[in-house]
Structures are given as structure tokens and as C-alpha cells.
Task: structure prediction
Amino acid sequence: MSTKDTVLALFEKNKGFFISGEKIAEELNISRTAVWKAVKKLQSEGYNIKAVTNRGYCLDKEADVLTVRGIRSYLDENGSCLRPEVFVRVDSTNTVCIEKAAEGEKEGYVAIAGSQSAGRGRRGKAFFSPADSGIYMSILLRPVGLTEDQVLHFTTMTAAAVSEAIEAVSDKKAEIKWVNDIYVNGKKVCGILSEASYGIQDRNLECVIIGIGINAYEPSEGFPSAIADIAGRVFDEPKTGLKNRLAAEVLNRFMAYYKELPDTPYSSEYIKRSMVTGRDVTIHKGKEQIKAHVLGIDNTFGLKVVYEDGTVEVLRSGEVSIRI
Result:
């Protein structure tokens, strides 16, 4: 872990209590200057750390901070095989997992961050990942014996798991916008990005990385104007431990489904949460936009639509925007 991460971990252990810069430096075997720089960086990223002369530093006891210890405390038998690593900030948790995979990291590694400087969504879009309000994590998997079509279903499996986790922790209804967005109260609270790597010569599946970005809370400065109309949050106000619990709940439910592959017990959970079924939508195909009505989602997660001319089509990929 970086100096900033280790300092944050120490603050988390002593949350609500002041700890001197001297004691931090001694315990972590770093300089006082390094402590000061780490604290300043954490404060700039949104962590509520008080600094008082002759008392030291104190992390707000109500701060909801992601930690390995906190997440592990909520993992059940399904998620206990995972190896989470928590970062204060990374460029992208998917990128972290890609690099780990290239180094030979085994299945079950999970990169989790409090913020991302270069979060990625589908189709190369940027994913807004501010500090101290979201959960950004990626799971490294090395599945064996799956077809390419079955690998494509990792996104829908993840969407079902995240929806169930949100409902379990928040008591709010979670809906799915085909293919990979989770909505609460009509606002997007989660996006999913699945990436697979295949051997160049044999086309054998080498790894799958599942990226999940969740808006746990509304950022202190609000959402950017470009997404303010559609972005939402899972929780109404911060509470200690909520992010750790939600992250663990997602991992538990995801791994429960993962262990059932190639069976898809999650299909009914995904289909019943569809927020586009029975709605008029706009289908985006490259630069083309076509109006359609959604008839439903089939058992292979295709979106069945009927166009204005009466033509029926089952979509296997693409982007759907709801016409309000």
C-alpha cells in the first residue's frame, strides 16, 4: 500500500480519536513530513480529518471509509475466498486488475478504491468517480470451460447481484436498465464494465474482469451538470460501515452466482428488475437512433423490441435510452 493508504488505515483503526503526527510516523516508520503530506492529500480527496495543534490528527468517527478489515467482516462463505485490496485512489480499478492479471495474479483478487482518476464505462466513456462518496471495485476471475457467449453474461449476472445487494442493505428497490445500469428511484446509481482477455493464438479465455462503480452517497459538491439529471445515490446520508457492508454484499451475491456457472439462476432476478420492459425507448446503433417499444427480455438476456413499422428484433448488444 502507498503511504497515504497506510495512514488512512491507521486513522480508521483510531477513528474518532486524535493521534499525534509523531506517533503515526513512529508506528508506520515514516517521516513526519510524509505524514503531513499524506494527511493533506487525504483532506484534498474529501476525508474529514481534523488537525489540532498539540493533539494531532483525527478522522471523523462518522466517516464511512472503505477498509479491507471492514469488508472482510461482512463476507460470508461465498465471498470468503476473495482477496480484497483497498486503495484511497487509483486511475481505474479495472486497470489495476488488468495489470495484476498480467503479473499472474490468481482468481479472486479484488481491487477496491474510494475514488478513481480515470474511471471507465462502456464504449470508452468516462465514469465519474469522486472521493468519499462511491464504491469502485473490480474482480479478477479466471473461469474455465465457458463459451464466449456465456462470458458475455457476466454483466447481467453482476447487475442481478448488485441489485440484490442494494435492496438488502438500503431497503430501496433497484431496477436494471438493459444491459448494465442500476437505477434507484429513477436515477442511475451503478454502472458495470466487464472485460475479457483471450489468448492471441488459441483464443482460450485467460481472465475476466468485472468493474463495478456505485454511487453510495451524493458527492459533497453534487454531480456534474452533464449527469445531474440522471445520477442518483443509494444512501440518503453517510453512516459508518455502510460502504463496507454494501461492497461485501455485492461480492457475496456475485460469488454465489459465479459458483453456479454455467447455470444461470440469476436470470429471473435480472428479468424481473428490468425497467425498460413495456416502455418506449430509443435504440442507439452507431449514429442511428431508432424508436421502439420493449416487449421484454428473453432467457439469454436479449432485449426484444418492436419498431414502429411492426418489425420485431432481439438485440444482443447496444445502448437503450428511455424516452420520458
Q: What stands out?
A: The longest helix spans residues 154-170. The CA atoms of residues 72 and 248 lie 7 Å apart. DSSP finds nine helices and 14 strands in the chain.
